[in-house]
Amino acid sequence: MNLTHRTMGTVVSLDLRTAAPDEIVTRAFAIFDEADARFSPFRDDSELSRIGRGELPLQGASADMDEVLALASAFERASGGAFSVWRSNVLDANGVVKGWAAQRAAAVLDAGGAADFCLNAGGDMIAHGVPADGQQWQVGIRDPRRADRLLGTVVLGEGALATSGTYERGAHIVDARTGEASHHWSSITVLDPDLTVADVLATAAFAMGADGPAWAHEEFGSSVIAVDDTGRMVVSGPVKWARG
Hints:
Elements: E1 2-7, E2 10-16, H1 22-39, H2 47-52, H3 63-78, E3 86-87, E4 90-91, H4 94-111, E5 117-121, E6 124-128, E7 138-142, E8 150-155, E9 160-165, E10 174-175, E11 180-181, E12 185-192, H5 195-208, H6 212-220, E13 223-228, E14 233-236
Antiparallel strand pairs: 1-2, 2-5, 3-4, 5-6, 6-9, 7-8, 9-12, 10-11, 12-13, 13-14
Helix pairs in contact: 1-4, 4-5, 5-6
């Protein structure tokens, strides 16, 4: 069963291979709506916007906001400042929130009895169980220079994958150490058991530039597939490519 839900400026799709109660699926999708209402930088009434304008002190923030900002601070320190949710005194947590929300939604599905599923939140994916007996979940990795071409297909199994790149929004990922857009990579895909980690690392590694993929693998044990601005692919860590 394939289900879709438009939220957070993207489409969340759920490929559900075993039955689960409707209310569990509804609750999983609602997590994204709640995250959008709380963290959207485009909504004047969001908690994030109120904090950014100084209307709400951080001491009065919700537990969810505290959790996301703590994650952001930890990755900012780990990346030596290349990754940050603050830019010119503007707060934007998009580099954390989508993966964080998807990881939470997957936990709801799992706890609710959805044994076999793949959740895709605008290209950030988390899989659980199997698509069919004797099979594993597989994901195609897009060539950032050609929309009609894949770099290859990886075996995701039970795990998560997130990609940051320039092919949809241009050079929008900033190295917070310099305040300038990072141009070394065309795309970076990170595979990790946790989608929150994969999502943040994809952005942080992209922002860091040439050293980003090796840093993500060495510091966090994640596998990274990176394509530079000449089209050369660099793989850090083990990646199981599907035959085909």
